[in-house]
Amino acid sequence: MQTGILRVLRATAASWWRHKELRRTGQTRQAKRLERETVLRDLGYIRQAATLPNAHVICGEGGTFLHLGWTTVSSFAPIKRFPVATLVVARGTPFIDIRPVIDVIAFANLPRVTRVTRDGSVDPDPCGPGTSVSLTTYIEMVEGLGARITNNPRPRQSA
User: Which residues neighbour 45 within 8 Å (Cβ) at sequence distance 6 or greater?
Assistant: First the structure.
């Protein structure tokens, strides 16, 4: 793992109000333990984003969401204030910015992205209503509604 990523994750963990309060009250050992746990958890999310085929980050007016198959990591903050999401996008995970989308009803009615397991097989997802589509199909649909895409996983088309 790159030193820069660890530096960002450590600084983020140390800046949490709870960890600062523990240090202020002399509970440095507990603060360090919690910060270490936080960094390890976030490193796990970054590794998953790099290995899962349908991992993606989506950002809208309601916050930023990192979708990792069955796991979703979210923040009410925009992506620039969500370091884990910023790091995975910088490392190449697809980013879907839905803030420009005006037709929220059409967006809400889109199918969900199919969950793909680590071995590449499609998760049958027996629970939950509605249909599901591949990440590339989903990107085409949201792009048609005005979303901006970064790190597009679709193959480039020659003109």
Answer: 66, 68, 71, 73, 84, 88
Cβ of 7: how many Cβ atoms within 10 Å? 10
Q: What is the pTM of this model?
A: 0.81
H-run or E-run covering 149: strand 148-150
The amino acid occupying position 92 is G
Kindly write down the DSSP assignment for every residue of 101-133, as one continuous string.
Answer: ---HHHHHTSPEEPPB-TTSPBP---SSSS-EE
- 28-51 vs 17-24: helix crossing angle, rounded to 10: 160
Number of H helices, E strands in the chain: 6, 7
Helix or strand run (H / E) with residue 40: helix 28-51
Q: Identify residue 49 by its one-letter amino acid code.
A: A
The letter for the amino acid at 34 is L
The torsion of the CA quartet 89, 127, 118, 91, rounded to 10 degrees, works out to 0
pLDDT digits (tens, 9 = 90+) for 45-96: 999 999 988 899 999 988 999 999 888 899 898 888 999 999 999 999 999 9
